């Protein structure tokens, strides 16, 4: 089979940076073979990060801002794609296509009184295609939603291709939001299921950003010095999303800046260390609760593989190992991959499936009525 170069681009709800993975892919479907060639994480500078946060907030967002930001992020994504090629010594014209998740601005997984089930990711694919002179696959979530799904999580398909084994595995991503993919041993795709467990790094990051002025709690050092406030933790665990039956998805609209501003105002008596410790345990405990309530009755969990920025938070990892004594808790690095590149690789693989006309949503993850081909294709004819 011919190997092709594909770039995957990802910017998550934690707003750490734009991840760009250059991937060598052979085949498609269950015969897919994936090799990571190179990876870069391009930092999102503070002015752009603040624009994204402002655009995601119902109280501060406006259509002019989102219109402009769509193009600004398109240029940023194109720059990340060019950067990973330069680092790898691969010419842009050697890349077959790019898969871009975009930046989620708002996500409505369930219809409400005045809103339809819908989602919005920006980072204009036409800008990416023109700047890189490469076809782009983008807007992956919307076809799943059109088919009755929640549009997320989408990574379970690629996790099934790459991580299936002779063990019952949970692939736990801890980005801005926590999400888990359950891959039973010797499984078929229809047995895979996934959902968002609740907050990942989002609340932790907002707390330390607001109180200390730093973007995240490096290695969990601030939380590691604090004491957990059990009353606050109980109140947080009582939030209905945690107990909601899957399939379910969430995001910044529930656990973002507005949530944290209110949290800080109502808990001024707590030190930053104690508040950080409590919200870090909230992430860990919400994961453990979802495992025990929604996974363990179906699958005896043997291995938990943690990915995303949260896997580098040692305080959080210590909490998870204590809360999940029945499973071997590992990181992506422990099994030869990297937490940083995992989701960018996934969107390269999803783009490859789209370009081959293959359905790549997982019904047990999104709740869609049927399997569908994901993504919109923005073509580009290279200049002669």
Automatic annotation (TrEMBL):
InterPro entries: Anhydro_N_Ac-Mur_kinase, ATPase_NBD. It catalyses: 1,6-anhydro-N-acetyl-beta-muramate + ATP + H2O = N-acetyl-D-muramate 6-phosphate + ADP + H(+). It is an enzyme of class 2 (transferase). Pathway: Amino-sugar metabolism; 1,6-anhydro-N-acetylmuramate degradation; Cell wall biogenesis; peptidoglycan recycling. Its EC number is 2.7.1.170. It comes from the Bacteria. The keyword ATP-binding applies. Keywords: ATP-binding, Carbohydrate metabolism, Kinase, Nucleotide-binding, Transferase. GO terms for biological process: 1,6-anhydro-N-acetyl-beta-muramic acid catabolic process; amino sugar metabolic process; peptidoglycan turnover. GO terms for molecular function: ATP binding; kinase activity; phosphotransferase activity, alcohol group as acceptor. ATP binds at residues 12-19. CDD domains: ASKHA_NBD_ANMK. PANTHER family: ANHYDRO-N-ACETYLMURAMIC ACID KINASE. Belongs to the anhydro-N-acetylmuramic acid kinase family. NCBIfam families: PRK09585.2-1 (NF007142), PRK09585.3-2 (NF007148). Catalyzes the specific phosphorylation of 1,6-anhydro-N-acetylmuramic acid (anhMurNAc) with the simultaneous cleavage of the 1,6-anhydro ring, generating MurNAc-6-P. Is required for the utilization of anhMurNAc either imported from the medium or derived from its own cell wall murein, and thus plays a role in cell wall recycling. HAMAP family: AnhMurNAc_kinase. This is Anhydro-N-acetylmuramic acid kinase. It comes from Holtiella tumoricola. The lineage of its organism: Bacteria, Bacillati, Bacillota, Clostridia, Lachnospirales. The gene is anmK.
């Amino acid at each position: 089979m011919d190997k092709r170069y594909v770039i995957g681009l990802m910017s998550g709800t934690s707003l750490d940076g734009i991840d760009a993975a250059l991937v060598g892919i052979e085949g498609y479907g269950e015969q897919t073979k994936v090799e990571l060639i190179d990876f870069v994480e391009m930092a999102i500078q503070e002015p752009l990060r603040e624009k994204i946060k402002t655009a995601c907030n119902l109280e501060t967002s406006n259509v002019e801002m989102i219109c402009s930001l769509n193009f600004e992020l398109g240029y940023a994504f194109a720059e990340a794609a060019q950067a990973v090629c330069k680092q790898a010594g691969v010419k842009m014209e050697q890349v077959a296509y790019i898969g871009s998740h975009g930046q989620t601005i708002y996500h409505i997984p369930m219809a409400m009184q005045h809103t339809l089930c819908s989602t919005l990711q920006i980072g204009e694919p036409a800008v990416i295609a023109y700047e890189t002179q490469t076809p782009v696959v983008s807007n992956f979530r919307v076809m799943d939603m059109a088919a009755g799904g929640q549009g997320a999580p989408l990574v379970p398909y690629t996790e099934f291709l790459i991580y299936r084994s002779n063990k019952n595995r949970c692939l736990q991503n801890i980005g801005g939001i926590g999400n888990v993919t359950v891959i039973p041993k010797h499984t078929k795709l229809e047995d895979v299921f996934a959902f968002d467990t609740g907050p990942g790094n989002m609340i932790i990051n907002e707390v330390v950003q607001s109180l200390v002025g730093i973007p995240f709690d490096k290695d969990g050092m601030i939380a590691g010095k604090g004491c957990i406030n059990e009353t606050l933790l109980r109140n947080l665990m009582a939030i209905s999303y945690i107990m909601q039956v899957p399939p379910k998805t969430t995001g910044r609209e529930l656990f973002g800046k507005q949530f944290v501003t209110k949290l800080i105002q109502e808990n001024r008596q707590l030190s930053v260390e104690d508040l950080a410790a409590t919200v870090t345990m909230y992430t860990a405990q919400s994961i453990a609760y979802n495992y025990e309530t929604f996974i363990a009755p179906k699958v005896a969990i043997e291995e938990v593989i943690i990915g995303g920025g949260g896997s580098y938070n040692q305080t959080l990892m210590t909490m998870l190992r204590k809360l999940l004594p029945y499973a071997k808790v590992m990181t992506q690095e422990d099994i030869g991959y990297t937490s940083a590149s995992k989701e960018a690789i996934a969107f390269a693989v999803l783009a490859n499936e789209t370009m081959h006309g293959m359905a790549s949503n997982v019904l047990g993850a999104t709740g869609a009525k049927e399997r569908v081909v994901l993504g919109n294709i923005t073509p580009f004819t290279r200049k002669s």
